[in-house]
Specification:
alpha/beta, TIM Barrel, eight-stranded parallel β-barrel, 8 strands, about 45% helix, globular, binds pyridoxine-5'-phosphate
């Protein structure tokens, strides 16, 4: 199982004071030394964490492949074509959200999506679509000709947090769901089974499968055990732990959980 470390949250801390540190660029050598496989960053339209200059420096200096997440916005796509990361993951974006709340809507009218994928691929970047785990989405991703899909694991993470009393990402809790324990356990099992089946389907369609969002040291094991998922992208929980253990140890701890 490969690990992409999402280092946006280092920039979140810097932007909270609008100062110069911590600089996400300083994470590159540590992430590499800890044995992770990829650097993941999200260049948001509102630039709330990673700035253009961060993306430029990170892509230029990283010896690990860089997976750049971004919205399907022409201004951002133009920048991405200049930056030329190894992979571009297209994600939905809402200005008012705290984090990416769901997968990209790829069903409906997707002329703009098709044109963007083609443009990125013509410039020799791999393209990934961040999608909710449904068969329709997987089939559409295949039709759109992308190399990768990334399943949004937010629903799984939410259910897990509800069952185990908010271990990890507290803000993921959905208050409306006061469900009995048995029902929650079943829903978590169903979600894992959906991810397992769909990643198998995707692999048979020659799509590479990643997953991420809300994964942490408590909930990652069941997802890491799905053999057909090649890569996990994890940010918040690793950077949160790094405050207490240092970034290298936080990544090593996560890597231990990904051994299958
Ligand atoms: N993958 C994608 C596509 C994301 O947008 C995010 C969040 O930025 C992540 C993975 C990582 O999520 P988290 O920070 O909750 O680990």
């Amino acid at each position: 199982m490969k690990l992409g470390v999402n280092i946006d949250h280092i920039a979140v801390l810097r932007e909270a004071r609008m100062v110069a540190d911590p600089n996400p660029l300083d994470a590159l050598s540590i992430v590499k030394r800890a044995g992770a496989d990829q650097i993941t960053i999200h260049l948001r339209e509102d630039r709330r964490h990673i700035q253009d200059i961060d993306a430029l420096n990170i892509i230029y200096h990283s010896s690990l492949p860089v997976n750049l997440e971004c919205a399907l916005a022409p201004e951002i796509i133009n920048i991405v074509c200049e930056l030329h990361p190894h992979r571009v993951t297209l994600v939905p974006e809402k200005r008012e959200e705290v984090t990416t709340e769901g997968g990209l809507n790829i069903l409906g009218n997707n002329e703009q999506l098709k044109a963007t994928i083609e443009r990125l691929q013509n410039e020799e970047m791999e393209v990934s679509l961040f999608i909710d785990p449904t068969l329709e989405n997987v089939e559409m991703a295949k039709e759109l000709g992308v190399e990768w899909i990334e399943f949004h694991t937010g629903k799984y993470a939410n259910l897990y947090a509800m069952l185990y009393g908010n271990l990890g990402n507290t803000h993921h809790t959905i208050p409306e769901l006061e469900l009995p324990r048995k029902e929650l356990v079943q829903m978590i099992e169903d979600e894992i089974s959906t991810l397992r089946t769909l990643s198998c389907d995707a692999m048979e369609m020659d799509l590479k499968v990643a997953a991420g969002h809300g994964l942490n040291y408590q909930n990652v094991k069941d997802i890491a055990d799905i053999e057909t998922i090649e890569e996990l992208n994890i940010g918040q929980s690793i950077v949160a732990r790094s405050i207490f253990t240092g970034l290298e140890q936080a990544i090593l701890d996560m890597k231990t959980l990904l051994i299958r």
